[in-house]
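User: New here, please read:
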Amino acid sequence: MRTPICDLFGIEYPILAFTPSQHVAAAVTRAGGLGVLGCVRFNDTDELDETLTWMDENTDGKPYGVDIVMPMKIPTEGTSVDLGALIPDDHKRFVDETLLKLGVPPLPEGEGREGVLGWLHSVARSHVDVALNHRPVFIANALGSPPVDVIEKCHEAGLKVGALAGAAKHAKSHVDNGVDIIIAQGYEAGGHTGEIASMVLVPEVVDAVGPDVPVLGAGGIGCGRQVAASLALGAQGVWTGSIWLGTEEYRNLAGNKGWETAFLRATSSDTVRTRIYTGKPARLLKTKWTEAWAEEGAPSPLPMPLQNLLVAEAHNRINASGDPDVISMPVGQIVGRMNEVRPVADVMADLVTEFGEAVAALNKING
């Protein structure tokens, strides 16, 4: 399974794993891949600093990466209070009435009411500054190209920069901006995703950026056969995400039995692509919460970051309730394969073993 990506990062397998859990990211790195820690959940830079120190100390000296959420264009951004004032009362009322209808209890007074500020441009910049004080080798941006000055700062520190792309034209633009690695994320993926499926998207992106720019296939990857398919389409590696939500190590972050029940019973058709999570199209698990937003009379989702600020407390309440029928969680169509909770090392081992079996079967066909 060795490709140029392995040599670029000093890893054994060209498997990159995005995850909000440091325990998952570190376990993937120790198992020979590249764990990439999602930073968006960190409102407190001190907490991120402590977490990356933990990553430094628990990855056996092996490389890891970080993922940020930063638009290339710098928005006009005031305080959280200023932004909150832009949220219509009708939207707030809809959220309150929906939570009541779904039977979601309130949080204890003063607990978990702050939104995830990592969606704000200024906070994402602070995440980059903290990361550069540690030893990641790679920084990826979930919203495409970061601002050019951020790319240059990362390059000066010796980091490679990656960006997600849902179309070939976006990938080419990222390269023009100085991005080193393109993550071609197909429609099947969880979280923010475009409208083109991976089978079509990956070769289009590979052809658009040329042979000198590494491409990672993303979206719908949860077994070794799908890793082999991505490499056959021209990718040099894979970017995985949803599959790690079903690992034992993820429990250290989630601690939510409702979420486990929800994904263990879900099929590949039990997801929906919607703007209700952040304001941009993202694939979520289909639940009573997502269905409420699709009903007649429901308001249209607000643009990023207002939508996230609108639903932040609601998501905290939903997650705290542990109700699998209501849970709000980004996940890709690969959720249909997530039928048991396993250690990260076992998932990695199966990806590698099944990849080898798939290649052997193809070689046998090829004579």
